[in-house]
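User: Continuing from earlier, I have the next pair ready.

Assistant: Great, send them over.

User: Here they are, in order.

Assistant: Folding the first of the pair now:
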Amino acid sequence: MTDRVLVLVRHGQSEWNLKNLFTGWRDVDLTEQGVGEAQEAGRKLKAQGLKFDIAYTSALKRAQRTLQIMLDELGQPAVPVIRNQALNERDYGDLSGLNKDDARAKWGEEQVHIWRRSYDVAPPGGESLRDTAARVLPYYIQDILPRVLRGERVLVAAHGNSLRALVMVLDRHTTESITKLNLETGVPMIYRLNADSTVADKIDLAA
C-alpha cells in the first residue's frame, strides 16, 4: 500500500508571538523557545520513523528556520525545500505590528476577536481566513497534494492561519467550527491520506 503521508507543523514561537504582536507578513525570527520547539518537533517526527521526500514552507523566515531545524533533527538536511508565499501567514493589514491588547483597547474585545477568529471578516487592509484559504488551497491542490497521492512523504512548515485553512479541508471543519481551532506552535500533525485525498488517519504529536 502506498504511504500517503502529509505532515503539517506551525512554526516555533516567534519574537512577535512572545511580544503579543500581530505579525502577519512581517518577517520576524524565532525566539530561543521557538528554536527549542522546532527541535522537539523534529525529534518527535524522528521517533515516528518518518523519512521525507520533499518539504514546503512559506516565504517567511520563522517558518523556513523551523523547517530547517526539524530536518536537521531528523538527520535529513538535504531534503529538497520549496518556498512559496502562498503558504504565508494571513496578512493582518493595519493590525500588523500592533500589540493585541492595544488593539482590543482601540477597537474593542469583540471586534478584535472577530478579526482574529472569524472565517470571512478581514481586518482593515488585511486578509480574512477565507482570503487566506483562497491562496493556500489552490497551491495545496496543484503542488502539494499530487505528491502525497503519488506516495511521497511531504513535510509542510507554515503558519497558524495558512495551516488552519488546510486543516479546515482535511478535518472537514465548518466555517463555524474552524473559528474555535487554534494550532499550537511547533506541534506536528501527521496525516495519512486515502487515494481519494480524504484523511485515513491523523496523529497529533502534542506534548
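And the other member of the pair:
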Amino acid sequence: MAALDRTFWAGKRVLLTGHTGFKGSWAAIWLSGLGARVTGLALAPDQTPALFDLAGVEGLVESHVLDLRDPRAVETAVASRTFDLVLHMAAQPIVRTAIEDPVATFASNVMGTAHLLNALRAQPALSAVLVVTSDKVYANSETGRAFAEADALGGKDPYSASKAATEMVVASFARSYFDAKGVPVATARGGNVIGGGDFSRDRLVADIVRAAQAQETVVLRHPEATRPWQHVLDCLAGYLVQLQALATDSKAPRQLNFGPRPGGAEVTVGELATLGVEALGAKPWRHEPDPGSLEARSLAIDASLAKRALGFESRLSAPQAVALTMDWYRRQANGEAALDLCREQIADYEGAS
C-alpha cells in the first residue's frame, strides 16, 4: 500500500474544512501528528458528545467556527491566510436529514463548496485541493454492480443529488479557474465509514453504541442493504495519499473511489450490526421496515483505480474495522482519553503500512 510521506506533510499549511465532525476530527489529529500546520473551518459540533470535544481537537489546530453557506465569512477566513493544501470535508452528511431538509443540505454541500472554491481562487501558493464527496454520487439502478469513476452521476434522494451536484461544481471550477494555474482540484468518493468517536444521529455504529449503553435494542430499517464499509483510517489514508499525489504528480486522477478492497465480500447492514452488538455484548438488533425510504438497497464501489494509480488500497476488512471501532468505544467508556486512543490507532495503522 502507498504510504504517507511524513517529510511531505511536515510544515505544510493545510486548510481542513469540517474539522469539528467525526471524520474531520480524525483528520485533524492525524495531520497535526504528521507535522502539518492545520487551519480548520466548520460549524460547531452538532452532537453531544463529540469527538472534537472529547479529543481536544481545538487545541491541535487553528480552529474557526463559521458557516460555509456564508460567502463573506468564508472569503474573510481564507483571504487572511496562505495555504499549500486543502482538504474539504465539511458537509451535511446524513441521508435522512437531507430528506427532512433538502434545501439546507443543498446549500451546505453544493453552495458551501462553491463559496470555498471561489475564495481559494486568490490563494497564491496552492499545490492541490481535494473535495470529499461520497460513494452515493452515482446514478444507482440497484443492480449491485460496483460503480467506477467513469460511471454516470445521479441521485434519487437529496443527499445523493447534492453530492453529485458538488462533483459538477468542482469540475467547473477546476476547468474555469484552477487548471490554468496548474493547481489540481479533485474529488474523493469515500465509502461508508466506521470508527471510534462517531456519535452522530442515524449512523449505524453510533446507534449500536447508544443502544448498548442504554441496554436497549438497536433498530435497523434495512438490514439487507449492502454498503462499502471501511474504517475511518483506511478512508482518510486514501484522501491523504491522493492529496500527496495531486501535489507531486500531474497525472494523478482527478476523481477516485475509496472503499473496501476490490473483490472483498459484501457486508450487509444486518451483518455489520451483528458484529457490533456481539463486540459490545449488546442485545440483538431488530428490524422495523421503512417502506417509504429512498435509501439505496445495494451500493458498491470499485476502488481499483486508486490501487492502479496510487498503489493504495484499504487494508482492514469489515470484521477488522468493527473490532478496531468497538475497542475504541470500550476503552473510552472505561476512562481512557479519546485523543490517546486516536493517536494509538493512527500509530498502529501507520506502523503496519
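Worth noting for the second one:
The mean pLDDT is 92. The longest helix spans residues 158-178.
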